[in-house]
Design goal:
heterodimer, A: mainly alpha, Ferritin, B: 525 residues, FAD/NAD(P)-binding domain, eight-stranded mixed beta sheet, five-stranded parallel beta sheet, 16 helices, globular, binds flavin-adenine dinucleotide, binds fe (ii) ion, Reductase protein (chain A), Ferritin-like_SF (chain A)
Chain lengths: 307, 525
């Protein structure tokens, strides 16, 4: 995925939209069935939080990127993910899922990830987030959003997600480009750097929060009726696109994450799923007192088109 | 200039021929000895020093209708100098009465008015004269200066003192014309606009913004501050000057000079951390970060306000009240990129329309780093715009080869990052005065810096600049788009002063009037 960053940045700038471009009071909200409503509420709330967490990830990457063009690109992506979260909140609001200034509550696994991002993400090398984020995005783009649009008939939802998906396609384009860029170079050097980072306790904590989050998300979407295979097929796209070039394949982070993707998809692998599922359950008992206060970047979320 | 130095009797002859040339000139357009463009600190200071040397056939062309330059134009709430007033004033006209360490713009403007009165400069002023270009006539040794809507002005020597930061710049944001509310640029403040109860956005977080935000926060209903890149901010030791201090300075001017010198060297010391990457740089960054931590309790906002470039790479700011202003309930900092301006406000990339009554552009100035301030045509029709298209270059920031008898104040590579602009301006002025004296005394048609001297000077300059923090990778108004540094001087003010102390004749070509030409000119054909 060799792209011209300069052209891409110009395209990003030329493709902006705002919440005010959408008529949130247009007819169609009534198309949500009573049966859908509670599940949709849980689904949207997770989705919106993933966007928001992705936003924070891009903020960290904007710090780390050395190329000024990439830096600016990530600064935009940070804001765009925030826009997605805002738009999804506006949809929830439209569907009567949010009171006045209510912000949906993040589940405990999200809380842990937010905690980790807030304290650690700025210290992670670019490769880590640069490799994880495309995985989250293929899953989001290829499975969650597609599934949502199959289930929901509200035209306003379709309008919003058309814009969101357009943004995502650019995120993915840049994401895979960077994944390959980072696989460029001597394998042993990449390997050494990789080993240095992967053994970093901060990252190990990060992984320990990421694994159960993924499984919890899978359970949540499954509860909504998304066939698991669809999720795995979408995740497989990561391996397909990321592994197209030798550079991409040489990136040890790509190797780690795509292998992990396979593990997640392989429900028969008890060695992986039993402990991780246990972690999901365990985190339910995670003492809330140990959580740090919600960072203030979370309070920037809004469903309002104008402020 | 060895050709000139030998002429012993030249001085008398020169002034005789000068007088003679002026008689027929009355029938033609009059030719001034010196035209100065701009009535800010530089232009006025040059006029004062020229007159002290007996050169008085001067006009100051000023596009505005008052003197003061920067301090006439920058009257926004909170406007003040960020170099102590005792240092930000002329050494030859110290003011014992500064009311505070860092005076506000009105007090600085008063000081400038006081200079005009004390040195009787009013008679030289030609207000509402906007210079649109100028051309050198080699045969006559005269610059023709074009003035918008007025007759051309002719002068043997020109001092271009039109200010490095005189032309307000608006950001390149789409839709800027579609905004339905009020827009104000910091350097063109409209005092009649009532901010009470208004929702206001400030775009920019540079030197002007950090002064405007605290002052405006007190007046408005809500203030939104849009930041692209945070600046390094140091605490500033502001103080009101006690009366005994003023009395002391008045009674004992030497004590003020001593204080001024102490301030000067304190700022010079900053250069070691600001200009070059040294342990002092780390130290200053540490101080700035501790200051930020002290004033901004929230970790996320602190992150937004922490610069990612080395201190000194962009202009270093000082303020005690900017961070606290951002912490107010009616002020909020935004770091989302701006997508566009629309009828009701600003749309940023997080998808929200920030609706406001007024947008304040604290977005600085168009700095001509890669173009002449206005079209300037030198010998053989060469154009300064062409020569500077890849970055402005001069000899000691004052002269440019091929443009004889033209002197620039605060020209290329004359900017300080750590000290008063006036510490650089004064040696320039004295150097310019020496140049003009040479032209008039030896009755030169042209005094032109040699290309090779200029090239050598710039080669050294750029070599030294490459090692500075300015050239360490951040984008700033110091650099051209290609990263060429055409604005800053890579060294201490003391070094700069030393380089300007002597007018180096050998670096110039001097051309006198040939007798044949002179007679022709006298016959007026
Ligand atoms: C807000 C602000 C704060 C500053 N604070 C400091 C500080 O604390 N310390 C410091 O050292 N420096 C400071 N500076 C830098 C400041 O610009 C210089 O210190 C100094 O005032 C420059 O003086 P000048 O005479 O060269 O230019 P100016 O003061 O800008 O004067 C130039 C004059 O030329 C006129 N002019 C421009 N173009 C034309 C034309 N084409 N025809 C006719 N006239 C023209 C202008 O109208 C203006 O009057 C500050 C600058 C700004 C903008
Ligand atoms: Fe997104
Ligand atoms: Fe995305």
């Amino acid at each position: 995925m060799d792209i011209d960053l300069e052209k891409m940045l110009a395209k990003v700038k030329a493709s902006q939209w705002a919440l005010a471009d959408i008529d949130w009071d247009a007819p169609g909200a009534e198309l949500i069935t009573d049966e859908q409503w509670p599940k949709l509420k849980a689904f949207m709330s997770d989705l919106m939080w993933i966007e928001h967490v992705g936003a924070r990830g891009f903020a960290a990457m904007a710090r780390k990127a050395e190329d000024p063009m990439l830096k600016e690109m990530y600064t935009y992506f940070h804001a765009e993910e925030q826009r997605h979260a805002n738009a999804e909140m506006a949809l929830m609001r439209r569907w009567g899922m949010l009171e006045e200034d209510e912000i949906p509550l993040p589940n405990i696994n999200l809380r842990l990830v937010i905690d980790w991002l807030d304290t650690q993400s700025d210290r992670m090398p670019l490769e880590v987030l640069g490799s994880v984020i495309p995985m989250l995005e293929v899953a989001l783009d290829g499975a969650l959003c597609t599934f949502l649009l199959e289930q929901v008939d509200d035209p306003v939802c379709h309008d919003a997600f058309k814009r969101i998906n357009d943004d995502e396609s650019r995120h993915l384009g840049v994401g895979f480009h960077v994944l390959e860029m980072q696989g460029h170079g001597k394998a042993y050097r990449l390997g050494l750097n990789f080993m240095g980072t992967v053994l970093n306790p901060r990252l190990i904590v990060g992984i320990a929060t990421y694994l159960p989050l993924l499984s919890r998300m899978r359970d949540n979407v499954a509860a909504m009726g998304l066939p698991e295979e669809k999720l795995y097929k979408a995740m497989n796209k990561y391996e397909r696109i990321g592994g197209r070039t030798a550079d991409g394949r040489r990136n040890p982070w790509f190797q780690l994450i795509s292998r992990h993707g396979r593990l997640v998809a392989d429900r028969g692998n008890k060695l992986y799923h039993v402990p991780v599922d246990a972690m999901v359950k365990l985190t339910d008992y995670y003492p809330r007192a140990l959580l740090r206060p919600v960072p203030t970047w979370v309070k920037e979320l809004t469903y309002k088109t104008a402020a | 200039m060895s050709a000139v130095n030998g002429h012993a009797a030249s001085k008398q002859a020169a002034s005789a021929s000068r007088r003679a040339r002026k008689t027929p000139a009355a029938r033609q357009a009059p030719v001034l000895d010196v035209a100065i463009i701009g009535a800010g600190f530089s232009g006025l200071g040059t006029a004062i020093r020229l007159r002290e040397q007996g050169i008085s056939d001067i006009a100051i062309l000023e596009r505005g209708d008052d003197v003061g330059g920067t301090w006439r134009d920058n009257t926004y709430p909170g406007a003040a100098c960020d170099i102590p007033s005792n240092l930000y004033s002329f050494s030859f006209a110290q003011n014992p009465n500064w009311s505070r360490g860092y005076s506000g713009s009105a007090e600085i403007l008063d000081y400038i008015h006081h200079l005009v009165d004390r040195f009787e400069l009013r008679a030289l002023m030609r207000f509402r004269h906007t210079v649109t270009g100028m051309t050198f006539d080699e045969a006559r040794g005269v610059w023709t200066i074009r003035v918008a809507g007025k007759k051309n002005v002719h002068a043997r020597c020109v001092v271009s003192a039109q200010g490095p930061l005189a032309n307000p710049a608006l950001p390149n944001i789409p839709g800027i014309d579609t905004f339905g509310g009020k827009t104000i640029h910091s350097a063109r403040w409209e005092h009649s606009y009532d901010f009470a109860g208004k929702r206001v956005a400030v775009i920019g977080t540079g030197a002007s913004a950090i002064q405007i935000v605290p002052a405006l926060a007190e007046r408005v209903d809500f203030l939104k501050v849009f930041q692209r890149t945070p600046a390094w901010i140091l605490p500033r030791p502001g103080y009101a000057a006690p009366d005994w201090n003023k009395t002391l300075f008045e009674k004992l001017p030497a004590s003020q000079t001593a204080f001024r010198n102490a301030l000067f060297y304190a700022h010079e010391a900053m250069a070691t951390g600001v200009i070059w990457n040294t342990p002092v740089t780390r130290l200053l960054e540490g101080v700035a970060k501790a200051f930020l931590r002290h004033q901004v309790p929230d970790a996320w906002v602190r992150r937004q306000l922490t610069p990612q470039y080395r201190i000194g790479c962009k202009r270093l700011l000082v303020s005690n009240d900017y961070y606290p202003a951002l912490m107010r309930d009616n002020v909020k900092l935004y770091t989302w990129p701006i997508d566009k301006i629309c009828e009701k406000g600003i749309r940023s990339v997080e998808g929200i329309e920030h609706q406001v009554d007024c947008i304040v552009f604290a977005t600085g100035f168009a700095v001509s780093k890669a173009a002449a301030p206005f079209p300037i045509t030198g010998v053989d029709g060469r154009r300064l715009d062409d020569e500077w298209s890849r970055g402005a270059m001069a000899y000691k920031s004052v002269n440019v080869a091929g443009y004889p008898n033209l002197f620039m104040a605060l020209g290329p590579n004359s900017g300080p990052g750590h000290n008063s602009a006036l510490s650089y301006m004064e040696p320039q002025i004295d150097y310019i005065v020496q140049g003009i004296q040479t032209i008039l005394e030896y009755d030169l048609r042209a005094l032109d810096v040699r290309e090779d001297a200029q090239a050598k000077h710039n080669a050294q300059l750029q070599k030294r600049l490459a090692k500075t923090n300015w050239n360490s990778g951040c984008a700033s108004w110091y650099l051209t788009e290609d990263g060429f540094n055409a604005t800053m001087y890579p060294g201490f003010a003391t070094q700069y002063k030393k380089q300007m102390a002597r007018f180096v004749n050998e670096d110039y070509r001097a051309i006198r009037y040939e007798p044949e030409f002179h007679e022709r000119w006298m016959r007026n054909d």
